[in-house]
């Protein structure tokens, strides 16, 4: 299985415990990634709903800091989670190559 397939499975599966035996060296990172993806989806939905309501009320998209102020905390959390997700994916890629590329 390629890294891309593993990452896809982590994103799509509700339970990833079956990956532990095959990928024990990256399993902790896979668990962390799963957690981050769930949080990211949660905050993305909040921001999407806010934008949808904002457009209905104001007849325009969110553009300025003032527009986003009511969900600023959620937006900052979402961007932080995105950065953490990228870091974990990079770590998974490095460790996958280190431990599993010769298999």
Describe this structure in words.
It comes from Plasmodium falciparum FCH/4. Residues 29-84 form the FAM13A-like domain. InterPro entries: FAM13A_dom (IPR059029). The protein is mostly helical and 103 residues long. It has one domain (3-100). It is 77% helix and 0% strand. It has helices at residues 3-12, 19-22, 27-58, 65-68, 72-100. The protein is elongated and about 55 Å long.
Fold topology:
Elements: H1 3-12, H2 19-22, H3 27-58, H4 65-68, H5 72-100
InterPro entries: FAM13A_dom (IPR059029)
Pfam family, one: FAM13A
Organism: Plasmodium falciparum FCH/4
Strand share of the residues? under 5%
Oligomer: single chain
Largest sheet: none
Question: Average pLDDT value?
Answer: 94
Please state the CA-atom Rg, rounded to the nearest Å. 18 Å
- The total of beta strands comes to 0
N-C termini distance:
10 Å
Overall, the morphology is elongated
Class from helix and strand fractions: mainly alpha
Would you list the SSEs in sequence order as H and E?
Answer: HHHHH
Organism: Plasmodium falciparum FCH/4
Protein name: FAM13A-like domain-containing protein
Domain FAM13A-like: 29-84
InterPro entries: FAM13A_dom
Name some characteristics of this structure.
single chain; 103 residues; mainly alpha; FAM13A_dom; FAM13A-like domain-containing protein
Task: Provide a short characterization of the protein structure.
This protein has five helices and no strands.
